Please model this.
Amino acid sequence: MDKNKQFFDEMIAGPDTVTDPYIGYNKWFAEQDPDHLTRKSQEAETFFRRSGITFNVYGQAEAQERLIPFDLVPRIIAEREWAKLSKGIAQRVTAINAFIHDVYNRQEILRAGVVPYDLVAKNDAFLPQMMGFSPPGKVYTHIVGTDIVRTGPDDFFVLEDNARTPSGVSYMLENRETMLQMFPELFSRVRVKPVNSYPDSLHRALCDCAPPACNGKPRVAVLTPGIHNSAYFEHSFLADQMGVELVEGHDLRVVDGRIAMRTTLGYEPVDVLYRRIDDEYLDPLSFNPDSMLGVPGIMDIYRAGGITIANAPGAGIADDKAIYSYMPEIVEFYTGEKAILKNVETFRCAEPDALKYTLDNLHELVVKEVHGSGGYGMLVGPAASKQELEDFAAKLRARPANYIAQPTLSLSTVPIFTDSELAPRHVDLRPYVLVSPNGINITPGGLTRVALTEGSLVVNSSQGGGTKDTWVLEE
Amino acid sequence: MLLHISHTTKYAYDQPVDYALQQLRLTPQVLKCQRIVDWKITVDGGTVEAFYTDHHGNDVHLINVDAGGVSVSITAAGSVETTDTAGIVPLPKSGPPLWYFSQTTALTTPGPAIGKLASETASETNNLNRLHSLSRLIAKQVSYGKDGTYVATTAEEAMQGGVGVCQDHAHIFIAAARAGGIPARYVSGYLMMDGQIDQDASHAWAEAFVNGLGWVGFDVSNSQSPDERYVRLAVGRDYHDAAPFSGMRVGNAKETMIVNLQVQQ
Model:
């Protein structure tokens, strides 16, 4: 990587000057004793260990449970910047829900030739069992995590639309909680929009999508694959914060036309199931018959109006990385407006010209699997060795349709506190979006992930990334 | 033709079952070629938990076997008025798009034998003629027999084995038609065999889409296109989608099934 390349730093504007959003924070920071902050940083780690916030890393035998490192310098966003961002996110999420409904019903966008048939027809995320069905409120993505990167003062790009089961919101909440505990005086000096209403908003959004069979106050439950899942902490955390049950597949069965959970009083129907299980494992009767994690018959009860599944099965058709490349057209098709948020230029390797370009410029590109997530199976060209590039080129030639390529973005940096001083590191942002028939609710801020290694552009926690508290200023 | 149908399926378990579900696709579709006069599903030893129309337009009942039960008996019975439409069913106004029926499934993925079969009819430029010759070729190369295949046998395996039942004939036909670029689907239903009231089992055949005509039926096993002796229950991309019964159960109980099917005028 070119060491001299200039990146936009969100805090440092020049020698001894900071950008507007950081003025208040910087004043406070300048008054702090670095040794004291170093001690606080260690305190934060203890805090996280005690609260049990860990994640599992797949494919690593040692350290099954790891702590995601936390950096105590907040990522700060001005209210004005946030207003534009949230408007763009809401527009995009509205289009995504309209798109999913269309794909499983009339398929107008395919008939109009805006999105090619093959991209849906040959897509593993397309779930035939959803055809001809409208979920309650026509909401498919009750919870979305839109990944956003910044390259300049006014340049925000959407990197991914996580429309299946976006994780990480527990870190957003815990990061703020930690900051409030460690630096209470800081929050009296800088006014920050709160995030702590997220669990209530989530609960309300889910209740607002109760199925036709629900009578009375909707009962919500969180379905987890179990303690071995990398996000189990988050599943139990969210259930706890919402005050609802955390269940596994074997706790649920079909009773009186509903999906019901075992309680001390017998079986009680669940109205809305916030499931953190992939489609394939959701129902052995309709999908993978070998699944031990799912709930047999849940798709039947769902189509019959006896339960709401959040996010809806088949919602993944919208966050596939090849579909992503059509998002500007998708937004315009359903909203009649130009997309407010920009897409990253994307080369679909299924197309011969794009494949050739990708192979010729592999050392400059980021290549991702169409269905991949979590930074697994991706290539960061500028950081790869010659051997890695050659190996990846072979994979590309073997299955071109499995990949997309994007230019390496000059991700913005935000300083981290390391060795008693500030040092710039690349960041991204995942705001959390809730969708219900009553509207779209975006928690101010979200989760900032930071690549802790100097110069690294990979922020995924599974690849050594950390997190920061994310502030939207109350101005 | 007014057909009277009585179809009882009894599952017996060798020990009490804690939890078992059955998805039923046992309700005749409403189409120009058939009209339901009356139809009823009764369950002995279980409860109907849900009723809905699935993604292929099939009516589905979800049955829960009584906890601790050792058997469940499901009867679908009634009368259906059928009309001979020369095996043609028009393309419905809603429902899955045609491209969906061009996709292969696990049971209908073509291998060398299906590929060879499809190429043998490739020279025929008229699709309808091509499908008829495909049907004849399969009947000639894959004899009807009950001992060569089971429910999970793929089209390719049955083609290579050279023997199969109606399900295998339909799968081979579907796989070869799709390999030749023609959308095709699986149909499950009943057939009144000439001169007999008691039928061995419910039936299955295939349909292929021909421009200008619609879905055209081919019953390879009987070397004919469906007529007024046929009653359609469900359609799908293959057996899995359209099977009259699809179930799961928790525990180690072994299951035996007894079918009693009568189709008569």
Remarks:
- Chain A touches chain B at residues 107, 110, 117, 121, 128-133, 253-257, 284-285, 289, 296-297, 300-301, 303-306 (CB under 8 Å).
